[in-house]
Each structure stands twice: as C-alpha cells, then as structure tokens.
Task: inverse folding
C-alpha cells in the first residue's frame, strides 16, 4: 500500500468516526447514556479497527406505511387455537379462514402455524422463496419492558400513540422535532465511501427525518427522476421570458453578501447533482412496471404502472442500477405510501392496500433479480405503530407493536423472527384494547440492518444510542 493510499484510508476512517460522533450528539441528550458519549470518543481513538466495511455495493430501502398499518391482519395465526383466539379478539376485523394462505413458519413454537391473506400472494411467494422474512411485534422501545413496568410508567417511550411523534420515533428514535434519523446517521458514517456523497441518502417521497443526518443531506428525487430547472435555459418562468436568465446570473454572481453566496452555492450544487443524475440514469435500463390491473381505495381501478408506490420504487431501482456510473458503494433510500390510519372502513380498504404493497414489492424484487442486484439490496417496511386488536366497530385504533417484512437476496427468508405474540385480549403483552407491548425494539431491527450495511459495533452504537440496552437483534442475514 502506498503512502497516499494509507493517507486516504486514514482520512476516510477519521471522517466516519467524526460523522458518527456528530450523529450521536444530534440525538436529545436525555436519551443518551454516558456510555454512548464515551463510545463516540472511543470511535475516534480506534478508527482503524472500527471503520465500516464498505466493499462492494449495498442499498437499504425503507418502505414507510404512513398512518399506522394494522399488520395483525397481514400475518395471522391459523392453527386451531391461534385462529380461534384471533377471531375472538378481532371480531368483524378477522379474515375468514378460507382467505388465508399458509406459510412456512420456522422460528416459532411447535404447534403454531401462520398464514397471509390472498391479497399478499406476491409477498407470500417471495417469503416462501426465501427472499423475505417477517419480524414479529416490532415497535419503538427505550429498553425492553414488561407490562407491569408499562403500567408503572417505567421505561415507556415518550408520546405513545401520537402519529407525528411515533412516526418520528420509528425513523429517528426520538419524538417529533428530532434533528436526525437513523438512516441519515448511517449516511453520515458511510458517505465517505461514495464518489458522489450527495446521493447517499435519497427520498422518493418528500422530506423525511429518517434520512436527515449531521453531515449528509437527503437528496429528494421525483417519481420520474431528478427535477430539472429547464426554464433557466431559455424557457418561461411565470410567463416571463427573461426570468430564467436572471436566475442564472443570480446563481453565478459573486457577492459579499453571505446569505446570497450560500443560497447560490446550494442552488448550484443542486443543479449540478440533478444534471449529473439525469445523465447517469439515461445510461441504465430497468424493467418497466407491469400494466397489471389493480384496485384503488374508494376509486376506479388503475394499473400498477400508474401507482405512486410502484413508481417511487422504479426510480429507486434506476438509481441502484446506476451505482457504478455514479461511484456509489452505500445508499439509503425511502419510499412511502399513505392511507393506513384505518379507524373506519378497514375491511373495505385493507385488501386494496395489501395488494398495492405486495405487487409493488414484487415488481421491485423481480426487477432486482433480473439485474443481478438482488443480493445487494434490502427492503424493509415500517409504520407509525401497530393498531388495536379490538375493533372500534368499523376499524382499529392506535396501537404499538406490529409485524414487518424484510426482503432481499441476502435475507435469511422463510422465517418469522422474534416472538410472535398470542393474538388475543388480556394477555401479558396486551396493555389495553389489544395494544401489544413490542417484544423487538426498532433499535434492534435497525441494528441488524446497519450491521448488514457494514457498520462496526462501535458505529452502530453511534447511530443507535440505546442499542446497548437490548439483546441481539433479529438474525436477518447469514
């Protein structure tokens, strides 16, 4: 190794450590134990032995189900005892037995068996093919707690059952107002491995705290690709033929005004990134979204290629396919679908939502396989919270623990990880109305995913400050 190579490697290692330390400092200090602060200093002291592994290419994709998805109907116990408990707890929200397709359920107690509704058939097929797994009863936790501790108010996460706060807690491990998310904090550490750091954390669904970091800035992309400022090159801006040229002069001008200088710098960076990405995407070919007919909630049917979620996943797929052109080694993406706050009309809307999610994921995974990138990408679902087992008469209300899918060629699929709870009321995990106390923390799931992305144990602690309060995360990868 030449002196120059050693210097570059040391610089990258140092930047990762500093980025991780900054990420740690960005989380509210009330949630940071002393050991976490010391871990940041330790990262600086042990850069060479603790640096992230970033060989090859890997991408993590968060599919966020906005509103709090009732996943108690996505994976259902179908053994005689379990199904009877499920029907008793859910009432009119329970699926009929003939609508449930059995799945291989390794990882759970003998005698238990599970199924998925027919609308999830494409996702079930991925699961049975070993390319997807279920992580049972996941939710935000400060540390593992019991029902008695919950009742006593000990170790309870802040602002439970609040949409905004729990969406933020899933994405950042802190309530609304958090300055950074764990995807962005991963990006802080991993961005130095990328030739174009601007494309480290990418959202296809608008601004998201999940992708916010201390050093990394989330790049937002439209469903059709980067949004180009074509009007600056001779087009009309608000019916003015001269405005575009004026904007060009403003962005290129040299000035002593700090605010104007910084604004111009940010705009130039954005325009340059958009142009670079547009060129890179024009050189890749990815499979088209199928024109499969698909239902919409309370609207006329459409086709999969017109569905927002599928189109978000396609543009992510394009960026993944362009990883070599852009010189990328690590990327974190976010896509999103709304409509999961099912206080009413749940049994009308839920089958449609399930089919849309399952078919979109199936398109994405099938396309990755065709490109030979299935082992390089892991997709996981997330949502504000689970919902109550108990029906409110038309739907379900805000809950806590829920079940989530992780898909990808590197995933040890065909298994349910974690402790799948008894789907019944009044159990040791029911804190009221069938709100389930999570048995796996979001932090543990994030730990497993960040480990696959190449973060060292010390770096994982920086990204996930309360990680040391938990046991091992779900064994998602070989």
Result:
């Amino acid at each position: 190794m030449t002196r120059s190579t050693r210097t570059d490697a040391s610089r990258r290692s140092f930047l990762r450590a500093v980025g991780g330390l900054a990420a740690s400092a960005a989380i509210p200090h009330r949630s940071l134990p002393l050991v976490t602060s010391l871990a940041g200093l330790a990262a600086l002291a042990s850069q060479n032995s603790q640096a992230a592994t970033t060989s090859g290419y890997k991408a993590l994709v968060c599919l966020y189900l906005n509103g709090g998805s009732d996943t108690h109907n996505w994976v259902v116990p179908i053994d005689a005892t379990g199904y009877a408990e499920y029907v008793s707890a859910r009432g009119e929200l329970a699926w009929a037995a003939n609508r449930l397709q059995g799945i291989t359920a390794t990882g759970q107690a003998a005698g238990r068996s599970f199924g998925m509704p027919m609308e999830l058939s494409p996702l079930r097929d991925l699961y049975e093919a070993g390319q997807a797994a279920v992580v049972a009863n996941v939710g935000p936790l400060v540390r593992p707690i019991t029902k008695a501790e919950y009742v006593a108010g000990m170790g309870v996460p802040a602002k439970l059952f609040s949409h905004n706060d729990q969406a933020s807690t899933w994405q950042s491990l802190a309530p609304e107002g958090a300055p950074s998310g764990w995807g962005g904090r991963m990006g802080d550490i991993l961005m130095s491995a990328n030739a174009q750091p601007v494309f480290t954390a990418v959202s296809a669904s608008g601004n998201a705290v999940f992708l916010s970091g201390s050093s990394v800035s989330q790049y937002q992309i439209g469903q059709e690709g980067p949004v180009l400022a074509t009007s600056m090159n001779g087009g009309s801006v608000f019916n003015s033929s001269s405005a575009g040229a004026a904007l060009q002069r403003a962005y290129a001008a040299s000035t002593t005004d700090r605010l104007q200088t910084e604004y111009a710098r940010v705009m130039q960076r954005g325009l340059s990134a958009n142009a670079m990405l547009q060129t890179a995407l024009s050189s890749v070919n990815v499979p088209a979204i199928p024109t499969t007919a698909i239902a919409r909630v309370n609207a006329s049917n459409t086709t999969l290629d017109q569905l927002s979620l599928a189109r978000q996943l396609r543009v992510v797929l394009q960026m993944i396919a362009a990883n070599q052109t852009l010189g990328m080694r690590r990327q974190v993406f976010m896509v999103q679908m709304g409509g999961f706050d099912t206080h009413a009309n749940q049994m009308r809307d839920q089958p449609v939502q399930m089919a849309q999610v399952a078919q979109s994921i199936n398109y994405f995974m099938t396309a990755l396989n065709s490109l030979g990138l299935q082992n390089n990408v892991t997709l996981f679902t997330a949502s504000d919270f689970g919902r109550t087992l108990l029906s409110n008469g038309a739907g379900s209300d805000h809950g806590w623990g829920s079940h989530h899918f992780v898909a990808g060629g590197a995933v040890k699929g065909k298994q349910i990880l974690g402790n799948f709870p008894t789907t019944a009321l009044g159990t040791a995990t029911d804190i009221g109305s069938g709100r389930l106390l999570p048995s796996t923390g979001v932090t543990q799931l994030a730990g497993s995913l960040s480990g696959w992305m190449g973060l060292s144990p010390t770096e994982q602690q920086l990204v996930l400050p309360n990680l040391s309060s938990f046991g091992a995360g779900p064994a998602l990868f070989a």
About this structure: Residues 3-224+289-321+329-469 form a domain with the Alkaline Phosphatase, subunit A fold (CATH 3.40.720). The radius of gyration is 23 Å. The chain has a mean pLDDT of 88. The chain has two domains: 3-224+289-321+329-469, 228-283.
